[in-house]
User: What shape does this take?
Amino acid sequence: MPLNTTDAGGRLIFTVFGAIAEFEREIIRERTRAGLDAALFAQVDCRIEINASAFEVTIELLVASRVAEAAVSTLGKLTLEDCCA
Assistant: This one.
């Protein structure tokens, strides 16, 4: 059943959903800020050290995902005639 925003009930539901989404976003913002403040207070270094081999593996995975993405994009453009010809 689609949401009809032209009547009062639909506008009410739409407004309530918007308010809930805004509330959830604000809660996320507050928790993130509290976590950052706590880490700053505890003087925790949040940076991650990465060695050369882990960096190389990360780059290889990134390249592989780009290759796979290109292959999927190309396959998505094929038609039945292309495959059976």
